[in-house]
Amino acid sequence: MPCLKEQVLDLLKKGYPEFVSGEVICRALGVSRTAVWKHIQALRSAGYDIEAVPHAGYRLISVPDRLYPGEITRGLNTSFIGQQVYYYDRLESTNRTARELAGRGVAGGSLVVAEEQAGGRGRMGRSWFSPYGCGLWFSVILYPEVNPLHAPPLTMLAAVAAARALRRTAGVKAGIKWPNDLLVNDKKICGILTELSAEMERVNYLIMGMGLNVNIAAHQFPPEIRETATSVLRETGRRSSRVALLQDLLAELEYWYLRWQREGFAPVLDCWKELSVTLGRPVRVFTMKESWEGWAEDVDTDGSLLLRLPGGEYKKVVSGEVSLRPG
Ligand code: ATP
């Protein structure tokens, strides 16, 4: 049951664009007029613009551009992913907080979201630029019942969900660079960092962290990534609803996660291949120690990249970083 403030908001949203009288709200929620006024004031301080006119009542004028839990869960088409939201204005990193929450055993599918990350992280400890209010910086906590050896492809599942949501809801033709960066016109729009806590044969928890650039203007990116990063705003020329994009992404995530549980990794991989911008291209692959140049031929059933080397032999790359080379 949502709190009274959320219920007042629900009534205003249902009544939109008409006024809803104070009396109707009092009766619907079984509270006094003073209580209603208090909740209206609380909503206003949270950024909701609400008009109050004597004898007419209250009218919602606008909703703030915030990732409030009520905004995310209202109309969210999932059964568990994102149904429990841990919302923060500012966090060091959503993955870090998600790890703490997972350690306390919060519900599977819980979402940790922040308007800003002070120390957002990419792979190998690299930093992730996550400015206030203009991206989706979030982590989803999952407890997959799977041997830890079979968990790594889940990061590719996250990429599939994000690419499909970006295409459908934001109208941006995102493609996936192996294993899980999302690119638009060869520029990065979304990074994914999946972290696993596991024992010998079981996963304790898995954190799917994502950083998706939504309403970041070109000039806002730091100079060192201005040429390599992009955002929905940069690609479409207009601001998009972060809530709508997140809701679609969470629904996609749940769809593919449930499918993976039922049918295994093959359907995810098929979809990943359709969205890939790596396969069928000449690439350079780096690991900590080595690097190879070759042709990105295919991905294996476990998600590793099959690289055809200039001599014709194949190299199976389990983890590494790919740079796309011009054909
Ligand atoms: P690469 O992007 O070179 O393949 P990677 O996949 O390991 O590396 P991540 O660890 O996912 O990259 O992301 C970190 C890198 O992404 C940073 O080193 C920086 O270059 C870049 N970056 C940081 N913030 C953003 C952002 N908001 N949008 C796009 N790129 C970013």
Automatic annotation (TrEMBL):
Q: Which residues bind DNA?
A: 22-41
GO CC annotation terms, alphabetical:
cytoplasm
CDD domains noted in UniProt:
BPL
E.C. number? 6.3.4.15
**Residues at which biotin binds:** S93, T94, N95, Q117, R121, G122, R123, K188
Task: Give yes or no: UniProt keyword DNA-binding.
Answer: yes
Q: Which HAMAP family match?
A: Bifunct_BirA
User: What protein am I looking at?
Assistant: Bifunctional ligase/repressor BirA
Q: What is the lineage of its organism?
A: Bacteria, Bacillati, Bacillota, Clostridia, Eubacteriales
Q: Which gene encodes it?
A: birA
